[in-house]
Write a structure and sequence with these properties.
The structure is a single chain. This protein is of the alpha/beta class. 49% of the residues lie in helices and 12% in strands. The chain is built from 7 helices and 5 strands, in the order H-H-E-H-E-H-H-E-H-E-E-H. The chain has a 5-stranded mixed beta sheet. Strand 4 (189-193) and strand 5 form a beta hairpin. Helix 1 packs antiparallel against helix 2. The longest helix is centred in the first third of the chain and has 32 residues, at 4-35. It is globular, with a radius of gyration of 25 Å.
Length: 229
Amino acid sequence: MTPRPIISLLVVFNLQLICLSALWLAKKTALASKRYSGAGRSTSEHSVKNAVLMLVMMGIFFYHWQRTSGSDPYAGAPLPAEAQRQGSGVHKLNYTRLIEDRRAFGDLARPGYYNVVEVYLDSCAICRRLERGFPDFLQKRTDVIIHRVKIPESGVSLKLEGDTREELEQSAAELNARMAAYQVCGTPHIEIYDPAGVTLAADRCGEKSGLAFLRAWMGEELGLHHDAL
């Protein structure tokens, strides 16, 4: 499999070639428009418009590609930590309770260990496929703890506080802001922290670098292609 950095460079190089070709075409058609008039000029002007449109479309594509691909933080399996856990290494929590307790995902991280936070739904097929590799991964890496945060299938239900309409609206706005801070825009939502509590990779709305990191890490440890996870 071609390394991601090489793929990124190839994509950028090819986009640059296409853009230069489009600029060359626009220049040639612009020169042609000065030599001819009437129908010929209309045709050349149409060609210029097509070239400009091509440039705009390439710009939109390149912008979208940068936003969705992101920079790949994975540079090989993290070095083993000194701490070695006892037990299964799986810590189960409820997403609703986490919000009520005002605990951030980073607060779950235990010092000295690599901490993986997985926010999931029981009905999430991608989650289940990823989770099938957890037992072997945790057996291989006894310095890792996985915090599995379950979202209820019925959705998150939080109690509003207040007696008046204004108080209830204020409570609802506060709860919405609190939930938005978690930046969970789909499952699985993955965040990974090193033994010092520093974020190695984390999913954000529109960008899944945490999931990509975990798949690459598990794939390397287990000798699997990331598509199998």
